[in-house]
């Protein structure tokens, strides 16, 4: 009888979660800007995955005889750069690099931020120490902190991902800590403690799943920051190095030809702008869709 009751309760919880997911998706799809952002993100992911099929030319191979061709040239609809490399091909392969660095940086930042936030919010004794470390990281401007880390580790995309992830940790930790402080006061958490559940089980099975909403919103919007930061650092010469087809590096290399071949800076700039816009509007849409007080 007891097992039957527990099974029914579990089924009720599963159905409730499914209803929440369906409601969230429905509310998100009503947001036209968020839908537009989703379409752009899916296109970017498609470009990254199927880059060899979409762009058949080599993004690195030079052809000086065809350098600085204008847009809509024969065989090069976005033109070529000063080394004769196809701009469209480099944009497509640049999407792969930007998304890969962004996902890696955000994932590492989430691991560190969620861990610190959970520990700080759940254990009072650790809270003071962890928050002081977070405050110390907050005292550095984000881009300067990333530049400092890259100066220590070296200039490459792996170190860019590490630098951006460290920069992301304090914000994530503070968001998760706030959620944990609120959730751990709930009656069902008190009940789990009285039943003798371990702290690890309570944090991982009951607190963390209920703190997913702000984490998902943070991760989505942080992707925009990570991609923009990657482009900024590469533009400054601290990220991707030539001839890597990275959008920020492409703008840096094309700025000397801004008047004679403006497409060398405008095209990668538009790619960055659209990607950052897409992740920001999807993050805004998720925030509104996950808020039960919002009427969309």
TrEMBL record:
<dbReference type="InterPro" id="IPR050366">
    <property type="entry name" value="BP-dependent_transpt_permease"/>
</dbReference>
<dbReference type="InterPro" id="IPR025966">
    <property type="entry name" value="OppC_N"/>
</dbReference>
<protein>
    <submittedName>
        <fullName>ABC transporter permease</fullName>
    </submittedName>
</protein>
<comment type="similarity">
    <text>Belongs to the binding-protein-dependent transport system permease family.</text>
</comment>
<feature type="transmembrane region" description="Helical">
    <location>
        <begin position="133"/>
        <end position="154"/>
    </location>
</feature>
<keyword id="KW-0812">Transmembrane</keyword>
<keyword id="KW-1003">Cell membrane</keyword>
<feature type="transmembrane region" description="Helical">
    <location>
        <begin position="33"/>
        <end position="55"/>
    </location>
</feature>
<feature type="transmembrane region" description="Helical">
    <location>
        <begin position="211"/>
        <end position="237"/>
    </location>
</feature>
<dbReference type="GO" id="GO:0005886">
    <property type="term" value="C:plasma membrane"/>
</dbReference>
<feature type="domain" description="ABC transmembrane type-1">
    <location>
        <begin position="95"/>
        <end position="283"/>
    </location>
</feature>
<dbReference type="Pfam" id="PF12911">
    <property type="entry name" value="OppC_N"/>
</dbReference>
<dbReference type="Pfam" id="PF00528">
    <property type="entry name" value="BPD_transp_1"/>
</dbReference>
<keyword id="KW-0472">Membrane</keyword>
<feature type="transmembrane region" description="Helical">
    <location>
        <begin position="257"/>
        <end position="282"/>
    </location>
</feature>
<keyword id="KW-1133">Transmembrane helix</keyword>
<dbReference type="GO" id="GO:0055085">
    <property type="term" value="P:transmembrane transport"/>
</dbReference>
<dbReference type="InterPro" id="IPR035906">
    <property type="entry name" value="MetI-like_sf"/>
</dbReference>
<feature type="transmembrane region" description="Helical">
    <location>
        <begin position="160"/>
        <end position="183"/>
    </location>
</feature>
<keyword id="KW-0813">Transport</keyword>
<feature type="transmembrane region" description="Helical">
    <location>
        <begin position="97"/>
        <end position="121"/>
    </location>
</feature>
<dbReference type="InterPro" id="IPR000515">
    <property type="entry name" value="MetI-like"/>
</dbReference>
